[in-house]
Amino acid sequence: MTIYREDVLRVGLRSIRAQFKPSVFKQLDHVIVEAAFNPVRVNLLREAFASCKGGMRTWLECPGCKLRTGTIGFANGAWGCNRCQKWHGRHNPWTQRSGKRVSAPLPVPMVSV
Ligand SMILES: [Zn+2]
After folding, report:
1. How many whole angstroms from 86 Cα to the centroid of ligand 1?
2. 113 near 18, Cβ under 8 Å?
């Protein structure tokens, strides 16, 4: 069965970063993300990277496949990334251009330390 991106409860690194002060976020090594009463511990990976925001790049560690990712999602009762959960956007250009959502907006997962 195909899982579409709009049916996945997703949380990205940028929305996690936005919930903390920059000084607090720099110290974090993990966050707890909860959706539909399924909390998961997500490790934050730091690696040296030349960017305009400084010499460090932060990644999320996927709870499923343990690879680095920018976004994790909850679908079919498990947390994972788009690689191990195999969710993706719609390929039909008409559903993309119409701007209409096929389903109602999903609630945003909760993030805590
Ligand atoms: Zn994964």
Report:
1. 9
2. no
What is d(CA 32, CA 39) in angstroms, rounded to the nearest whole number? Answer: 6
pLDDT number for residue 93: 62
Task: Give the angle subtended at the CA of 56 by the CAs of 74 and 28, to the nearest 5°.
Answer: 55
CB-based contact 71:82 (threshold 8 Å): yes
pLDDT at 99 over 70: no
| pLDDT for residue 98 is more than 80 | no
- Dist. CA 38–CA 47, nearest whole Å: 28
Ligand 1: centre distance to CA 65 (Å): 4
Question: How many angstroms separate the alpha carbon of residue 3 from the centre of ligand 1?
Answer: 14
CA of 72 from ligand 1 middle (Å) equals 8
| Cα-to-centroid distance, 74 and ligand 1 (Å) | 11
In this structure, which amino acid lies at residue 84? C
**Domain residue spans in the chain?**
3-87
Question: pTM to 2 decimals?
Answer: 0.78
